Amino acid sequence: MPKNSKAVKRQLDDDVRESVKDLLSHEDTCDGSFKKSSLIVGGGSDAEDDAARPAWNSKLQYILAQVGYSVGLGNVWRFPYLCQKNGGGAYLVPYLILLIVIGIPLFFLELSVGQRIRRGSIGVWNYISPRLGGIGFASCVVCFFVALYYNVIIGWSLFYFSQSFQQPLPWHECPLVKNKTTMFVVPECEKSSATTYYWYREALNISDSISESGGLNWRMTICLLAAWSMVCLAMIKGIQSSGKVMYFSSLFPYVVLICFLVRALLLKGSVDGIRHMFTPKLEIMLEAKVWREAATQVFFALGLGFGGVIAFSSYNKRDNNCHFDAVLVSFINFFTSVLATLVVFAVLGFKANIMNAKCVALNTKKIVALLGNEVSHDLIPHHINFSATVSAEDYQQMTEILRGVTEKDYPRLGLDSCSIEEELNKVRAVQGTGLAFIAFTEAMTHFPASPFWSVMFFLMLVNLGMGSMFGTIEGIITPLVDTFKVRKEFLTVGVSLLAFFIGLLFVQRSGNYWVAMFDDYSATLPLLIVVILENVAVAWVYGTDKFFEDLKDMLGFTPFRFYYYMWKYVTPLLLILLLGSSVIQLGMTPPSYSAWLEDMASEKSLKYPPWGLAVCISLVVMAIMPVPVVFFLRYFNIIDENAGVVSTISYKKGCIIKESVRPEEDDDASLIHAKSPGSEAPSPMPGNSIYRKQSGGVPDAAPNGRYGIGYLMADMPDMPESDL
């Protein structure tokens, strides 16, 4: 080593100290932690966001969050119903096709814009085009509407969960009422069933119509408060707190589903249910209705348009392979739906065999009573022993003989029709809460150790609902925090309290009818419009070619050309067709709801009163109203397209920095504008850059547009630029 090496080293160290001292002398007064992160060298914008914006602890945590958000209650109680209704196994074909054509491209689009821009839905669409900034606000409104009633369903699940620690289960049989002389079964329960009675009368204590509020159901009010408390506590620190909860809430449902499947397959009749489920009815595939319902299910299964996908993705690093994530999460969602369908119909197959055995036993008693009178002993096969239990096969053989010999007199015997297929076909009319809280709970009463399985099932529903709620609330909180720079903790508590008090509407005795109204009208049409506008904004306003260049810069490779044609032509066209068919269906079907009538102990379809129709229309209008409002405000320059008033104020680690308004730019469609007229400043999101803090005066341009964090770009003429 040269003798003067130590002297050279000391001189270099002194130079470095002087350079750092000079740089720090230009810093504004702020807290120490802010100063430490004020100089960012290399990958400036990325490094800034990494320092200021929360990030996922691991890729697994992020994937579990997206899976937990997309896999929800609809996978358990909506997909099996649609599969059974629309051709069994044949339904999987249109579903898979539409998942590839609509689902994955749109899911990839939302993941990529969120990850690249690192903002919530409001910030993302403001960046792409200020005139389309209302898309983000519309997503927030829809998220809030959905959160209002979705957490009520979690509250119902919490109630059933709390009631499952009993042997026998409280919905095992109809309650008895005692008067002065005798005891008798409650008429409402006797006319329906034990699980149906428990759901409508004990749990909901439902009124006869939406016009009869009936006051608050105090038990459901407590459950709703518990549900919102759980959501608030899990979300109060953002992904730092909810991310840890995801490990349990996302994985536990799979453990329960697999346990249920294994247990159900060991029960008699489960194979009958699965065979019935997946027997393809190919002729149904040609009906347009099947494809429309498959497209709608794909659309909602992935949580498109809510903003939750964008919010979760915005906490990723910009070089994350979001294409892989989109494909992975989409197919996990699909296989979860198939797994849930297997479980549901394996259990319902077992239940159908139980119901069929009861029917056979009842009819056998009737036949024994008719022997020697209406029925001759010679017509009964000799191997059938009435003193023992008659099997379903022997009963089938016996009734076929009776029907063949006494065809005209057979109806007079008064025998009920006993068939496993008929029992399974009854499921066609059962979906949603009816499947979870009536059909499935009835099946579990016949399980050995039924309380254990009931606890597991409703705990699974709570976790499925919570995973979706985390994404829904994140779709509200993240855009508002990014835009208005409020404390996330205060906003989370405020949103939870507001939603709880509005949610009291859903825990009245008529609350179930309000849940149905919000489910039917608050999300479907608005979300379709939102996603169409998202697709058009990226593919046509910003430009598919430019977007592909940005993806190549972000991912390190060019995505398949398949996405180019999907985003630009196929997906928007299919979405417009889906929107048109949904509008036509709503127009052809007058708004109505299914009411439970206590006297008849049955459901009846009722039309909404005039004020109910007004509420239905208001839900749709309120959800989509931000889009035209923001567009016209920007178009007529009531709000300057290049100045966002509130959003021009940014903060980092407790230090608030006021930024200047970005100069007028020619290209409103740029995701993150590369250059301003008359300025050679590079893109605010380059691949590699150096940012330095402003030393004084008014900056020429905020490096991150409306949502910058207060740094100026150093003059580097050779800096590579990106369209993002």
UniProtKB/TrEMBL annotation:
SUPFAM superfamilies: SNF-like. The chain crosses the membrane at residues 62-80, 92-113, 134-161, 216-236, 245-266, 294-315, 327-348, 452-478, 490-509, 521-542, 562-588, 608-633. It is a multi-pass membrane protein. InterPro entries: Na/ntran_symport (IPR000175), Neutral_aa_SLC6 (IPR002438), SNS_sf (IPR037272). Keywords: Glycoprotein, Membrane, Metal-binding, Sodium, Symport, Transmembrane, Transmembrane helix, Transport. The keyword Membrane applies. It is found in: Membrane. It holds the Pfam family SNF. Residues 667-702 are annotated as: Disordered. GO terms for cellular component: plasma membrane. Na(+) binds at G68, V71, N75, N333, L464, S468. GO terms for biological process: L-leucine transport. GO terms for molecular function: metal ion binding; proline:sodium symporter activity. Belongs to the sodium:neurotransmitter symporter (SNF) (TC 2.A.22) family. PANTHER family: SODIUM-DEPENDENT NEUTRAL AMINO ACID TRANSPORTER B(0)AT2, SODIUM/CHLORIDE DEPENDENT TRANSPORTER. NCBIfam families: Na_transp (NF037979). This is Transporter.
